[in-house]
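Attaching the record inline, Q. Sequence:
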Amino acid sequence: MAQKVMVKGVFHNAERQKKVFVTGATGFVGGALLKALSSRGRPCKALVRRTGKAEVLRHLNVELVYGDLLDLNSLKEAL
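Structure, as predicted:
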């Protein structure tokens, strides 16, 4: 039986709490995905470029990591 953990006052299975890595977080689809995951209490890590757009994600309580999909070193650091 899976271990239960409490998130935002609701018990969930521990395996549901694996961190989700989202790229394109400042875009339309990535931003909507982060909002949906965050509203469900899922921990997220978002890959963002160093622009002002990333700041609008801070209220979602997600971990922001700065990098670029085309930069292998930044991806290694993000993961």
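The chain is about 25% helix and 25% strand. The first helix runs from residue 28 to 39.

More tomorrow.
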